[in-house]
Amino acid sequence: MPDSPALKFDEQGLITAVIQDVENGEVLMVAWMNEEAVKKTLESGRTWFWSRSRRELWRKGDTSGHVQHVREVRYDCDADTLLVKVTQEGAACHTGERSCFHRVLEPA
């Protein structure tokens, strides 16, 4: 990727991507990107991910209509995790919830 840092992808060629609402900081989801998904995300302004189960690229919102417009992509100090700040249209979670982190784990 020209003009990109030396991102550290794992042994499967993936990097963790934390997706965050640019307006309020809410964490919407966590997904995985390969080098192509990162490139397509940066070029298109929409989020692209690698599906570990289907073993294919997918663009968020193509089937659900719940599009993520990328406002900024940051990487952490180890260059092995991305923070993707987005404007979210509709739900981010496949369950229909705005965030995948809508459940609370209660202490025993």
What does this entry look like structurally?
- The structure is a single chain.
- The chain is mainly beta and 108 residues long.
- It has a domain at 15-88: Roll (Ubiquitin-like (UB roll)), CATH 3.10.20.810.
- It has 1 helix and 6 strands; from the N terminus they run E-E-H-E-E-E-E.
- It has a 4-stranded mixed sheet with strand order 2-1-6-5, with helices on one face. Strands 3-4 form a two-stranded antiparallel ribbon.
- A hairpin with a 5-residue loop joins strand 1 and strand 2.
Task: Give average pLDDT, whole number.
Answer: 95
Helix content: under 10%
Overall geometric form: globular
CA radius of gyration: 14 Å
In terms of DSSP E residues, the strand content is 35-45%
CATH topology of the domain at 15-88: Ubiquitin-like (UB roll)
* DSSP helical segment count: 1
- CATH second-level architecture of the domain at 15-88: Roll
- Give the N-to-C terminal Cα separation: 47 Å
Write out the CATH superfamily name of the domain at 15-88: Phosphoribosyl-AMP cyclohydrolase
Strand arrangement across the biggest beta sheet: 2-1-6-5
Order of helices and strands: EEHEEEE
Question: Can you give keywords for this protein?
Answer:
mainly beta, 4-stranded mixed sheet, 1 helix, two-stranded antiparallel ribbon, Ubiquitin-like (UB roll)
Task: Give the structure's gist in a few sentences.
With 108 residues, the protein is mainly beta. Helix content is 9%, strand content 35%. It has a domain at 15-88: Roll (Ubiquitin-like (UB roll)), CATH 3.10.20.
